[in-house]
Design goal:
- By secondary structure, the protein is α+β, with helices and mostly antiparallel strands.
- The protein has a single domain, classed as 2-Layer Sandwich (GMP Synthetase, Chain A, domain 3).
- It has a three-stranded mixed sheet with strand order 1-2-3, with helices on both faces.
- Strand 1 and strand 2 form a beta hairpin.
- Helix 1 crosses helix 3.
- It is globular, with a radius of gyration of 18 Å.
- The model has no long low-confidence stretch (mean pLDDT 88).
Length: 123
């Protein structure tokens, strides 16, 4: 199976969907922020490992706590994932912090500020 095959793309999206449900509803670790979202999942073609890109809305301390909580719960998440998704191998989960959503929010704020300042200068 090639890395960008249709089957691999479906597996990536299904794993991302199930992990987002498991993180938001099943994990009770207080370190994990409720504003945690699974941005993307990249499962290797042999289904042995998966890179899970996580975004946490909040400050740097909240991101670190959430990362540590997810890292400690990775084996439990893997076992729960094995029960919900029928795959030949259940991949080991590697969590990677992704700031793309926060970057987009900050850029939108900057654009709005520029637009407001431009409107104020026109008056």
């Amino acid at each position: 199976m090639r890395k960008n095959s249709i089957k691999n793309t479906r597996i990536n999206s299904e794993v991302a969907h199930e992990l987002s449900i498991l993180i938001s509803q099943e994990i009770k670790d207080p370190r994990i922020s409720p504003l945690t979202s699974v941005v993307a999942v990249d499962v290797t073609p042999d289904l042995k490992q998966a890179k899970v890109y996580i975004s946490v809305l909040g400050d740097e301390e909240k991101r670190k706590e959430t990362y540590e909580g997810l890292k400690s719960a990775s084996k439990h998440l893997r076992s729960m994932l094995a029960k919900t998704i029928n795959l030949r191998n259940t991949p080991e989960l590697e969590f990677i912090m992704d700031q793309s959503i926060e970057y987009g929010v900050n850029m939108t704020k900057l654009i709005d500020d520029v637009n407001r300042n431009g409107d104020a200068l026109d008056e």
